[in-house]
Automatic annotation (TrEMBL), chain A:
Keyword Transport: yes
Organism encoding this protein: Aliiruegeria lutimaris
Keyword Transport: yes
Cross-referenced PANTHER family: ALIPHATIC SULFONATES-BINDING PROTEIN-RELATED, BLL4572 PROTEIN
Full protein name: NitT/TauT family transport system ATP-binding protein
UniProtKB/TrEMBL annotation, chain B:
GO aspect biological process, one term: phosphorelay signal transduction system
Protein name: Response regulator receiver and ANTAR domain protein
Recorded GO MF terms: RNA binding
Domain Response regulatory: 6-120
Pfam families noted in UniProt: ANTAR (PF03861)
Organism of this sequence: Aliiruegeria lutimaris
């Protein structure tokens, strides 16, 4: 079979793993795709490269295609999310001074109770809390607003979330530009490793099933090249299935650690894959079940209700009409193409493309196209349920 | 003078910044300032309240400027990326050259184009210089490694320089590898054994 060349962009993060593994272990080749991977220096550049057609597809923060559909940020264009690439994987970290204040007030960094951690953070922060995130349109930002907002911290009066590229996060903490950060793996671990901060909470404790990265393409490209889009979805599905196997974590870490990809110690990367995190420079350990995961529980399925949640949140904070934002966002997550890619294979697909978000306290069996499917727990820390039809 | 454009250039490298400023000056009478700091970038820029911000696309700091596209208060001026949203060619040329521009909404395209053209030309030159420098550096490093491997072969096998070089080249051809890779393997192995 002749191989179709495609260029995919990514940011060197642990959750770029599906793209890297798809290329390195031949999952792309099996679909007749010759992938070239191109690291980008920033999310805005990555988004523009896709929007302008310089590259075919890219790993992208799940809210970026949704924000683009709402006309927020960057060039006017339409981006589609073909599948979800990863769920979770972010951590909230605090400066050493703030960590000391939080500990002095009696919080034990239990790493599971988002309510307790949030209250402790708010109490220790004083009048105004400034938190760095990698990008204005990111799950990092949305989850912070959701979490701290629910605990009574008003944005923008008392909460200032602003963009700091992860490589500059330690510097921003040290110079007092920010008090805390929310970043993806491995940046949280790097902050601990170089002694610039401590980890307070994984974002999976805020929302257990937050779609973190998606594979995004130009809408026009998906329409004119549906066959390539479908092959891309299939190779990502296979790569994430491989990544879900614990016995592959060591190999995955080794491949990601190569100089041409993340160029970081494999041991550091493995922490994120196993969810065994070091949270302080003193070496305290926390184990997080499903800290970052790629595949199980229909993780790669682009739920239209996830796009709806993101749109609803973005609209609320940007002062846009929520109902029309939700409508515009739904079509961005291409569950139709995803179904076409995996139909007729030994893969079970959800019966619906939308669900209540936050309704599952634990992994639950649900009706699927050919029988049943186990969905991952998806609760929000405050027990809220998002109904994509009405909220 | 109310008609002057105010332009902010985000650039850490002083020399590059000066070159950019020179090019922009040549394109018209503008008020130009340079910001080199990396932290608090969005704040520094909104204090200056410029019409145009130019930033290297390879700089990770660019994501900080995305905040400027969101007017957070009624007093803020909304900023769009590029002035003429329909002019994809200009946008593409800029991205290819390695510069991105954030421009205040509502500015006449005719006023921005000369600025962008000047920036694009300058960034193309940087791009070419950077590629050339990287290639030269790589070539030098490769030659150094090959020279070391050659020296080792000459000493260990009692060969003259030409013979050592021929041996290396043959080994590379036999293994379907680049000569520098074979040389590097030899140097590394020798380092481990000694």
């Amino acid at each position: 079979m002749s191989q179709t060349p495609l260029t995919l962009g990514y940011i060197p993060l642990v959750d770029a793993a599906p793209l890297i593994i798809a290329r390195e272990l031949g999952f792309a080749e099996r679909e007749g795709l010759a992938l070239t991977l191109r690291a980008a220096p920033s999310w805005s550049t990555l988004r523009d490269l896709v929007a302008l057609g310089q590259i075919e597809a890219a790993q992208m923060l799940a809210p970026i295609p949704v924000a683009t559909a709402l006309g927020l940020g960057g060039l006017p264009s339409r981006l589609d999310a073909l599948c979800v690439l990863s769920v979770g994987g972010n951590t909230v970290g605090v400066s050493n001074e703030l960590a000391a204040a939080i500990r002095a007030a009696g919080h034990d960094f239990d790493f599971t109770d988002a309510t307790a951690a949030g209250k402790a953070l708010i109490a220790a922060a004083g009048e105004r809390l400034r938190i760095g995130v990698p990008f204005p349109f990111s799950m990092h930002a949305e989850l912070l607003y959701y979490w701290l907002g629910a605990l009574g911290l008003e944005a923008p009066q008392a909460l200032d979330v602003h963009t700091v590229p992860p490589p500059l996060m330690a510097e921003a903490l040290a110079s007092g530009d920010i008090d805390a950060f929310c970043v993806g793996a491995p940046w949280g671990s790097i902050a601990v490793e170089n002694g610039s901060g401590e980890l307070l909470l994984p974002t999976s404790a805020i929302w257990a099933f937050a779609p973190e990265k998606v594979l995004a393409v130009r809408h026009d490209w998906a329409e004119s090249e549906p066959d390539l889009a479908i092959r891309l979805i299939r190779c990502m599905w296979r790569a994430t299935r491989w990544l879900a196997d614990r016995s592959n974590f060591v190999t995955a870490s080794e491949i990601l650690s190569r100089p041409e990809y993340l160029n970081l110690p494999a041991e550091l990367l493995e922490r994120s894959l196993t969810g065994q995190l070091t949270i302080s420079p003193r070496g305290e350990q926390r184990r997080v079940e499903d800290f970052l995961y790629f595949h199980e529980g229909a993780a790669t399925f682009p739920w239209r209700s996830q796009a709806g949640w993101i749109a609803s949140r973005l609209a609320a904070r940007m002062g846009l009409d929520r109902a029309s934002a939700r409508r515009a966002a739904k079509n961005v997550f291409r569950s139709d193409l995803y179904r076409a890619a995996l139909a007729g294979r030994a893969v079970d697909l959800p019966g619906a493309s939308e669900k209540l978000e936050g309704a599952l306290e634990q992994a639950t069996e649900v009706p699927a196209q050919n029988g049943t499917l186990i969905l991952h727990r998806d609760r929000f820390f405050d027990g809220q349920i998002f109904d994509p039809g009405t909220d | 003078m109310p008609n002057r454009l105010s332009i902010v250039v985000v650039e850490q490298d002083r020399e590059r910044a000066l070159l950019i400023v020179d090019s922009l000056r040549a394109s018209g009478d503008h008020e130009i300032s340079v910001i080199a700091e990396r932290t608090g970038l969005a704040r520094l820029i909104s204090e200056k309240n410029p019409d145009v911000v130019l930033v290297d696309v390879t700089s990770p700091s660019r994501d900080m400027l995305e905040e400027l596209t969101l007017a957070s208060s009624p007093l803020d001026r909304p900023v769009a990326m590029f002035v003429d949203r329909s002019d994809d060619n200009l946008t593409r040329a800029a991205i290819e050259a390695g510069v991105s521009a954030y421009v205040v909404d509502g500015l006449a395209p005719g006023r921005i184009k000369p600025v962008l053209d000047a920036a694009i030309t300058r960034f193309y030159m940087f791009h070419a210089m950077r590629a050339e420098l990287a290639a030269t550096k790589r070539a030098l490093e490769e030659r150094k490694i090959i020279d070391r491997a050659k020296g080792m072969l000459m000493k260990a096998r009692g060969l003259d320089e030409d013979a050592a070089y021929a041996l290396l080249r043959k080994a590379a051809m036999d293994q379907g590898k680049k000569m520098v890779d074979v040389a590097e393997a030899l140097v590394t192995a020798a380092g481990l054994l000694s």
